[in-house]
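Input sequence (263 aa), recorded before submission:
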Amino acid sequence: MSEAAQTASAPGPVLFVRYAFPPNQRGSCGPPDSGQFFEYGVTCTVDPGLVELARQFTGAWPYLELIADATGTPDPLDRRVVEAYWIGNDLLDRVGARAMGDSVEERFRRRTGRFGPLADSVLAGGMPHHSYHVFCVYPWLGLLGGGGTAAEHALTVLDRCRIRWGRVRAVEGDQVVVDTRALTWDGRCLGLGPAETEIATAAVDGVGFVSDLRPGDQVALHWDWVCDRLTPQQLAALHRYTRHHLDIANHRLEKPGLAKHLG
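Predicted structure, token format:
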């Protein structure tokens, strides 16, 4: 089986596990039993229990529902819908600004009390992609302008929480050495720095989401985990939608006095 076929073979619910597990393992979101969730991902098991676990990701699930509803896709865990949210594909271009705005308003107006900046981000072209949630919804953006350790921590969270891409340099047991571009902050705007080498986790005791990784493979990274092998088309899409939402975030940061109100 080719690498492209392997990448496209995981059903939607299993693909969701691959990308959602890293923050779930950290206790940031989703169900409390990350071990059970991990087992679904490595065994490629799909059953009603997995669907129920996926629904407990209250950050991601409404975006999946939005994409599915807007594109006439019956299942929010359809593979194309899941791919659209985590990586990006043409389904995102079919979600209109009104549907996106209504969804964001329903979810966040009462909870955050700061719907104005979120409305602006939708009008600027925000899409139901994970990078939108990281750069436009999370409060970390507003902590960058304060400088010091708070800004450093905020930048780290923004960088590790987004879906990153990296090129495998070497495979060392359960870990891989990858070249990836870290998020940068120059005091005014966010960007992507030059490629740097880091260590990522691909498996635990030989069991992981992606088999037969080799030097030269392009992979998706979430926190410190390898989630999937990326095709050239997926790599281009992930870069496109990440850059798109970085541009929206930077536009918001350019407005005088706005950054302090984003947290």
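Checked by second reader. Residues 1-6, 256-263 have pLDDT under 50 and may be disordered.
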